[in-house]
């Protein structure tokens, strides 16, 4: 791993810890209103029929939070929707045929580019810096065993694609019909 990659990893780890810290942070300064945090994120959504697609969303409810003595833009995860439970680093290479994600998760592309193909027939490329939220787990209410309902197909577009995965626990389960529900982040 190059020095530049290590620096990018540390920046993204810092961002994720900011995101995770916001879950319990209660000290806030003046709200930032319609300000945005970065370039937004992608969400793999599942409609009521189990069809998957990708939406591009902006972080909502961004506010300035005192973190490390300096106010920074932050968006906390709603603990009723998801609570962080672990961080995994992985390197994807090749393809991963139709599957559910193992747990609700936020996937951050650290290096390289990967793609997600959804059941609507579209393919979305996720280059370095891209953030994806997904909760199309096997227990999703729209998942049907033996079909591609609530599934996606993914693979690396570069020789290897390094990712950081923040696994989440969803106290009330996967978001039902996430295609028409408000943004989780």
Notable characteristics:
mainly beta, 6-stranded mixed beta sheet, 41% strand
Describe this entry's structure for a reader.
By secondary structure, the protein is mainly beta. It is 11% helix and 41% strand. The protein has 1 helix and 13 strands, in the order αβββββββββββββ. A 6-stranded mixed sheet has the order 3-2-11-8-13-6, with helices on one face. It has a 4-stranded antiparallel sheet with strand order 7-12-9-10, with no helix packed on it. A 3-stranded antiparallel sheet has the order 1-4-5, covered by helices on one side. Mean pLDDT is 82; it is low at 17-35.
Q: Outline the biggest β-sheet.
A: 6 strands, mixed
> What class would the helix/strand composition place it in?
mainly beta
- Give the low-confidence spans: 17-35
Number of strands: 13
Helix-strand pattern, N to C?
HEEEEEEEEEEEEE
Distance between the termini: 30 Å
Q: What quaternary form is this? A: single chain
Number of helical segments with 4 or more residues: 1
Order of adjacent strands in the largest pleated sheet: 3-2-11-8-13-6
Radius of gyration, in angstroms, nearest whole number = 16 Å
Range of helix content = 10-25%
Bin the strand percentage: 35-45%
Q: Quick check: average pLDDT?
A: 82
What is the 3D shape?
Answer: globular
